Amino acid sequence: MSELKLKILDLLKEDARRSAELIATMVGAAQAEVEAAIAELEADHIIVKYATVVNWSKVDDKVTALIEVQITPERVHGFDAIAERIYLYPEVKSVYLMSGAYDLLVEIEGRTLKEVASFVSNKLSSIDRVLSTKTHFILKKYKQDGIIFEEHEEDHRLLISP
Q: What is the CATH number of the domain that holds 27?
């Protein structure tokens, strides 16, 4: 991949609202060249989506859980067919194939703890080849996708020295 495209990806990852004109200025290229590079990145599905990072704790109280899933892979399709079956559920936000003690890491969102528990027990655990699950609830997000959600407050106490 060209150096220009890598720079464009870094700048768009940092702020997807940057215009081609601004990016061109930042990387020292022509606007038409930047627009063509972005169009190629989109056509090649390297840029898949432009997204906004939202601090949901300030909007509503969604429940997010990370679920470790141990599975027996299928003979022909390995982990892929089971991962696909899982990621097609609308509650599922992310699915990752992992190394280590478990095979898949599944991130889901629900309105309540009960809704998440119902998903795990009724949908996820009942899938053939799912051996076990371990659910971890996210209590607070400090940082996501490089964005710090809460600014560090300055300590305004007076310094006392002996």
A: 1.10.10
Give the residue with greater pLDDT, 61 vs 3.
3
Over the range 128-146, which residues count as b (16 or more CB within 10 Å of their CB) and which as e?
eebeebebeeeeeeeeeee
Longest dimension (CA), the chain: 71
**Contact predicate 66/106, CB 8 Å:** yes
pLDDT, tens only, 69-92:
999 998 888 899 999 999 999 999
Cα(158)–Cα(130) distance, integer angstroms? 57
Residue 146 above 90 pLDDT? Answer: no
* C-beta separation of 82 from 71 below 8 A: yes
Predicted model pTM = 0.72
- Tell me, yes or no, whether 69 and 16 share the same domain: no
Verify that 80 and 8 share a domain, yes or no: no
